[in-house]
């Protein structure tokens, strides 16, 4: 599908306003250490099966790795009336806006051919951010020894719903967390946590 506005010359005041909003948006992104490139176009997919994140992952992973990056996560979310397909990328030295642009351009065509989503959606290519969520098994294995933040679905007696610690071990969906003075540890099931994030990753 052609991007909105292609072939039409925008009014000068509209162009200035758009650039202003873009500057504000990018300023907020860079302040938080979170980079994201949003496509200006919307895609209308026609597949009857709806969104299949695993198919998007399979499509994007070799493309992202071919650009010298790693694929961190793929998510399809609805926010208000808008739907977003978010592709999170990473590299050891950190992601910048150019990486997001390069990946966005590289996956646009293949995603359009795959046609994985039946609703109109916007594509965003982003970094996981400094407080990235640990989701996949390899994320936990990669960051053993790192400081993490945990929010449980239900409170733990004597601890509560939210706490911090050091990721000591991970195996078969079980996460072992040690306090920062090394005196106590707790093992939780990953599925019992609302989220587990790195604490100010750098």
UniProtKB/TrEMBL annotation:
Residues 135-192 form the Ribosome maturation factor RimP C-terminal domain. It is found in: Cytoplasm. Residues 59-131 form the Ribosome maturation factor RimP N-terminal domain. GO terms for cellular component: cytosol. Signal peptide: none annotated. Pfam families: DUF150_C, RimP_N. Gene3D superfamilies: Ribosome maturation factor RimP, C-terminal domain, RimP-like superfamily, N-terminal. Keywords: Cytoplasm, Membrane, Ribosome biogenesis, Transmembrane, Transmembrane helix. The chain crosses the membrane at residues 12-30. InterPro entries: Ribosome_maturation_RimP (IPR003728), RimP_C (IPR028998), RimP_C_sf (IPR036847), RimP_N (IPR028989), RimP_N_sf (IPR035956). GO terms for biological process: ribosomal small subunit assembly; translation. PANTHER family: RIBOSOME MATURATION FACTOR RIMP. Belongs to the RimP family. Required for maturation of 30S ribosomal subunits. This is Ribosome maturation factor RimP. The lineage of its organism: Bacteria, Bacillati, Bacillota, Clostridia, Eubacteriales.
């Amino acid at each position: 599908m052609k991007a909105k506005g292609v072939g039409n010359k925008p009014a000068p005041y509209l162009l200035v306003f758009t650039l202003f909003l873009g500057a504000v948006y990018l300023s907020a992104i860079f302040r938080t250490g979170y980079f994201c490139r949003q496509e200006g176009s919307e895609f209308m997919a026609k597949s009857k099966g709806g969104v299949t994140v695993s198919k998007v992952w399979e499509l994007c992973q070799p493309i992202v790795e071919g650009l010298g990056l790693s694929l961190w996560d793929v998510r399809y979310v609805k926010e208000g009336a808008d739907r977003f397909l978010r592709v999170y990328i990473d590299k050891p030295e950190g992601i910048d806006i150019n990486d997001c642009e390069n990946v966005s351009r590289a996956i646009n065509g293949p995603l359009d051919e795959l046609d994985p989503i039946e609703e109109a959606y916007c594509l965003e290519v982003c970094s996981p951010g400094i407080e990235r969520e640990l989701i996949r098994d390899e994320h936990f294995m990669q960051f053993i020894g790192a400081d993490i933040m945990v929010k449980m679905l239900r409170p733990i007696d004597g601890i509560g719903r939210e706490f911090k610690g050091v990721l000591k071990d991970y195996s078969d969906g079980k996460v072992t967390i040690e306090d920062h003075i090394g005196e106590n540890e707790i093992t939780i099931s990953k599925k019992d946590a609302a989220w587990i994030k790195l604490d100010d990753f750098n």
